[in-house]
């Protein structure tokens, strides 16, 4: 089975996964929970083993796209390899980073992934300590994503991102978010992805709300949704 949820921020919002695991004793490492950005488990090299231990003790495999609150210097020390058709970084055998602009085929379903976002709290953070400029996607990553979509005639089953497109930003549940007070170039990039993709549903985190936006978009934070 495959599920998707919102930000975990390391251990700050981890408890939802612990509760979910207790509610579903049938799950195994052959099942997946995808975190839609701000995984945050790769944050401090000094506490990395202890932080990741909580995730590896879960009965399922954790997949994640990156958000804006990640230690990209530390994350980028992990080698890139191919997994289920796309580029990943295996933090642990059961903790896998789904990289930007990739398409994965998992259990017969296709997923396009594109992490990254703008930190609205950047003014409170220090570069290289609690904020990294790599939070923003690059045009090279965008081009790679579009090229991968073209290989599949633009068709995927699901899109998993941290932020969302400009169209999704206009829904009332998102429109008044503090995140919109800044220029968010990743939303322009995701709009371009949106214009070049056909998909069943798009899931994203970042805004710390649980909301269904029309028929094709869902913002996630606490809820854990099954992919069917």
List the helices and strands and how they pair.
Layout: E1 2-5, H1 15-23, E2 32-36, H2 48-56, E3 61-65, H3 72-75, E4 80-83, E5 86-92, E6 95-98, E7 102-106, E8 109-114, H4 139-151, E9 158-161, H5 166-169, H6 172-175, H7 185-195, E10 201-204, E11 211-213, E12 217-219, E13 224-227
Parallel strand pairs: 1-2, 2-3, 3-6, 8-9, 9-10, 10-12
Antiparallel strand pairs: 1-13, 4-5, 5-6, 7-8, 11-12
Report a brief summary of the structure.
With 228 residues, the chain is α/β, with parallel strands linked by helices. The protein has helices spanning 15-23, 48-56, 72-75, 139-151, 166-169, 172-175, 185-195; strands spanning 2-5, 32-36, 61-65, 80-83, 86-92, 95-98, 102-106, 109-114, 158-161, 201-204, 211-213, 217-219, 224-227.
Describe this structure in words.
The protein is of the alpha/beta class. 24% of the residues lie in helices and 25% in strands. The chain is built from seven helices and 13 strands. The protein has helices at 15-23, 48-56, 72-75, 139-151, 166-169, 172-175, 185-195, and strands spanning 2-5, 32-36, 61-65, 80-83, 86-92, 95-98, 102-106, 109-114, 158-161, 201-204, 211-213, 217-219, 224-227. Strands 4-5-6-3-2-1-13 form a seven-stranded mixed sheet. Strand 4 (80-83) and strand 5 form a beta hairpin. The longest helix has 13 residues, at 139-151. The protein is globular and about 40 Å long. The protein starts with a strand and ends with a strand.
What are the key terms here?
13 strands, six-stranded mixed beta sheet, seven-stranded mixed beta sheet, globular, 228 residues, alpha/beta, 7 helices
